[in-house]
Amino acid sequence: MPKKIAVAILNWNGKALLERFLGKVVKDSAELGQVYLVDNASSDDSINYSQSEHPEVKIIALDDNYGYAGGYNRALAQLEEEIVVLLNSDIETTAQWLEPIAQAFESHPRLGALQPKILDLKDRTKFEYAGASGGYIDKLGYPFCRGRVFDSLETDEGQYDDFQNCFWATGACLVVRKTAFAEVKGLYEVLFAHMEEIDLCWKMQIQGWEVAVEPASTVYHLGGATLDAASPRKTFLNFRNNLIILFLNLPHFEAMRIIFSRLILDGIAGLRFLSQGKIAFIWAILKAHFAFYGLFQKLYAERLKRSQKPFSAMTGRYPKSLLWSYFAQKKQKFSNFF
Description:
Layout: E1 5-11, H1 15-29, E2 33-39, H2 46-53, E3 58-61, H3 67-76, E4 83-87, E5 91-92, H4 98-107, E6 111-120, E7 135-138, E8 143-145, E9 148-149, E10 152-153, E11 164-165, E12 173-177, H5 178-183, H6 196-206, E13 210-221, H7 232-249, H8 252-275, H9 279-294, H10 296-305, E14 317-318, H11 322-328
Parallel strand pairs: 1-2, 1-4, 2-3, 6-13, 7-14
Antiparallel strand pairs: 4-12, 5-13, 6-12, 7-8, 9-10, 11-13
């Protein structure tokens, strides 16, 4: 019998989501998992609700809102289980969802991070934006997924149901081996939220760990429950954090070349927002770049603590430009790329 898996749900003022999803997580995880509520100093009644309605859930109450990265770093430091699921509070699990996950970690001793197949709770026939069936990245650092390229979501017809190594696993339902998590010093807290899971998986790959997707396990993601996809704040974090992870994980000259290219491409993205009248999003991109420059000293110190490897050495990298393939060549399905 596999050892218990920790299922850690990060929460901040999310009582409504707990009322909707927590009971099913507890039921579906009962055989292999111990569910934890990791609370980022909520001011609502989240903890009382969990204790009252689901006393089997263990509480890790933090003293402040540390975001995704900081919250989970502090939580994992308190957990004894070797395999930990970092589960969004807006995920609907399925029966026996933990069994394929446990088997994958038993079968692959160098597996550091894993995700299940993520489908859209609002349209259960389609892949969900945040992760789909495994994360990939192109030569300029643009992330995409098996089943999702930019905003194009494919219908799940079983076309991506094979276990496969990939570049990154989604933070919406990220399963990590604590040994690997600790070896790479966990999630980088400067990122706070968004792309921190890509950075974590990148660090793991550099250190020789594998990252994979196991579609034999399936969950459904509501999406946008904590920060709406159309939020300028999300745009800011995505643009800033993408520059940060490129700088931290690539060799110097490769990082500088790609970041320079991204400055131009981000400017083009700003012009696109301008044509749509989305002024707040233009400002979000500008703030993202200035924030990146302002963090240079801190980022450089972090970079010195890490190892770097070229993109060509990584699993799950698309060696061409995703932008060109998608917009110019009209390739809108993952199967068109590999």
